[in-house]
Write a structure and sequence with these properties.
With 153 residues, this protein is mostly helical. The chain contains six helices and three strands. It has one domain. It has helices at residues 6-9, 26-41, 51-67, 70-90, 107-112, 120-135, and strands at residues 96-99, 139-142, 149-151.
Length: 153
C-alpha cells in the first residue's frame, strides 16, 4: 500500500481532521500528528522498516515545536518532519538507499496562506496536501544495478 493521504485527512488524522475537536494538550496534539503520519507512511514504496521509530521521534520533536511558541513553531515543525523523512529513508536499506525530500515542508508558508481556511476540514486538506506533495519528493535508489531511482509513493 502506498502513501495514504486519507490517513491525514480522515478521523483520526491530523488534529482537526473530520472537524473533530483539537487536542487539549500539546502532548496530545503531537501524538495525533505522529500517529497520523505513521499511518500515512506505513505502506511507503520503497518500504521502510523504521516507520514506527520515525513516528516516535516525530512525536517528541513536535512537543518541543508546539512548546516553542508561534514565532518558532513552523521552523521547528519543518525540522521535525525532515528528521521524520530521514528516518524513513534510513529504513529503506538494504534494497534501496533512501533519499529524503531535499527541502522542508514549508509550514510557515502554509500557515501564512491567505485566505485562511473557512473550516477545519479545509485547513487539514491544505496541510495534508502539502505534506503529501513534499513526501513524494523523496526517492529510493536501488542499491544493485541498474541503481534506478524510485520516487516515494
Amino acid at each position: 500500500m502506498p502513501l495514504l493521504l486519507t490517513a491525514l485527512t480522515v478521523s483520526p488524522g491530523i488534529p482537526g481532521a473530520a472537524e473533530k475537536d483539537y487536542p487539549t494538550t500539546l502532548e496530545m496534539a503531537a501524538k495525533e500528528w505522529a500517529t497520523a503520519m505513521q499511518a500515512y507512511v506505513a505502506g511507503v514504496i520503497p518500504p521502510s522498516v523504521t516507520v514506527a521509530a520515525a513516528a516516535s521521534a516525530l512525536e517528541a520533536a513536535l512537543v518541543g515545536a508546539f512548546s516553542a511558541g508561534s514565532t518558532s513553531c513552523a521552523g521547528l515543525m519543518d525540522a521535525a518532519f525532515q528528521q521524520f523523512a530521514a528516518t524513513i529513508a534510513g529504513g529503506q536499506l538494504p534494497l534501496y538507499t533512501g533519499v529524503p525530500p531535499p527541502a522542508p515542508v514549508g509550514f510557515a508558508t502554509i500557515f501564512a496562506q491567505k485566505p485562511a481556511p473557512g473550516t477545519r476540514t479545509e485547513g487539514v486538506a491544505r496541510v495534508a496536501t502539502k505534506i503529501d506533495a513534499w513526501m513524494r519528493t523523496g526517492i529510493g535508489i536501488l542499491v544493485l544495478p541498474p541503481k534506478s531511482p524510485l520516487p516515494w509513493s
